Amino acid sequence: MLELFLIGIGTGNPDHITRQAEKAIRGADLILLPHKEDNKAELARVRLSLLRDLSIDDRRISHFDMPVRRQQGTDYDRQVDEWHDAIAQRWQASLQTHLPAHSGRVALLVWGDPALYDSTLRIASRLGLAHDQVQVVPGITSMQVLCSAHGIALNEIGAPFQVTTGRQLREHGWPSGVDTLVVMLDGQCSYEQVTEADIDIYWGAYLGMPQQLLMHGRLGDIAPDITRRRARAREQNGWIMDIYLLRRTSR
Q1: I need a surface site. Which of 120, 189, 215, 232 has the fewest CB within 10 A?
Q2: Model pTM?
Q3: What's the angle, vertex CA 175, arms to CA 178 and CA 149, rounded to 5?
Q4: How far apart are CA 41 and CA 48, in angstroms?
Q5: Domain termination site, one of 101, 123, 140
């Protein structure tokens, strides 16, 4: 029987690999390793470095190129659906090549945690596997690493917080009923559109990596500095992964 393990690996720091994740990686017969466009080659290198730190034989690794998502038009949901179909087809091709009997343990290394703003579980559902054939290994999220790096608590005492995306923040503004927002997947610096007064921002990029960047302050004061630093880092590295927390203050 085929078993698929979706393994959270945190932000790429080897110290973020849990013992459960290590056990699942070592026990895999095949590890699928995605490659994105050339300017994001470092992401594949980080995954490969983690595998080599665990002495995983290269013959157990199947490399595949990630398809590019169509971004023309306003049918965002359809674009994502097509993209997930294409990724699932790449997975299937690797399985047919390396596990033609459709039996064995297959692993995918997922940034952060597979359950939080990640589509790996949705893509896996396209493979037609039974529920007990898919195992999820939780990982440390960038949200946790961000709070730890800044030395802050995620929530105020007894208060709720909300995790959202840059697109949601741009299109719908600050949601009612919460004073703390964690914003992920924001490639357009949506914090610049926040007009509420007395907002602090805790921003981080490349969390857990050697090039980690952190900035914190009153949003109205440092938003332009974050945008400039973000653009400079993206130009230098060819890619960027960042996240930020916004919090209303009483000051």
Answers
A1: 232
A2: 0.89
A3: 55
A4: 11
A5: 140
